[in-house]
Design a protein that fits this description.
216 residues, mainly alpha, MetI-like fold, 8 helices
Length: 216
């Protein structure tokens, strides 16, 4: 079997991996900001609850979280699960996991902004929302872009963990083809995909960092 034929067979898995990637970013980035606000809340019980959530998400393997989200409804609540639920389980697990990491990145960026900027904005008549979204957030984004880039690159590779619940993304597909063909070429094809995807993301994020330098 030629390498091009193997790449063709890997294409459905490639699209599924990309879908996991984009949906995870779509939901986890704004959720991470909301979690960061909760982490900095003045309400002590709420703040400790958010801290516990972040601690659990960062302290346990994503692979284990995937298994809990997928198998949990059946073993904990007795709810029957279908193969169609695999996709939703993957997205839920990835979103809640990465939101915790993004929350801490956001928090670090927000807390790095000098208090004087808030005070100056208040003197100028800005509301709290205007101050945050027009003055603080653009600076925060500029400061956290390198850290966000690292997490995004990790996310691309982490999509392969979906194999633990046999969701047919790139790596799971490559494993099945490799087993049926007794060939290592499917893994080479998957490696090429991950590398090229990561390279594209790294280049785009580098350009974003240069554009964000406007806020220095």
């Amino acid at each position: 079997m030629s390498f091009l034929t193997i790449l063709e067979q890997l294409t459905p898995g490639m699209w599924r991996s990309m879908l996991i990637f984009f949906l995870t970013l779509l939901f986890s980035l704004p959720l991470g900001l909301a979690v960061a606000f909760g982490r900095m809340s003045k309400c002590t019980p709420w703040r400790w609850l958010i801290k516990a959530y972040i601690s659990i998400m960062r302290g346990t393997p994503l692979m284990l979280q995937l298994m809990v989200v997928y198998y949990g409804p059946f073993y904990i609540f007795g709810v029957s699960i279908s193969s169609g639920y695999k996709f939703y389980a993957v997205i839920i697990a990835f979103v809640v996991n990465y939101a915790a990491y993004f929350a801490e990145i956001y928090r670090g960026g927000i807390e790095s902004i000098a208090v004087g900027q808030y005070e100056a904005a208040e003197v100028l008549g800005y509301t709290k929302n205007q101050t945050f979204f027009r003055i603080i957030l653009p600076q925060v984004i500029k400061r956290i872009l390198p850290s966000i880039t690292n997490e995004i690159i990790t996310l691309i590779k982490d999509t392969s963990l979906s194999f633990v619940i046999t969701y047919m993304e790139m790596f799971t597909t490559a494993r099945q083809i490799a087993a049926s063909q007794s060939s290592v070429l499917p893994f080479v094809g998957a490696a090429v995909f991950y590398y090229v995807f990561n390279l594209i993301v790294a280049v785009l994020m580098e350009k974003a960092e240069k554009r964000a330098a406007y806020f220095e």
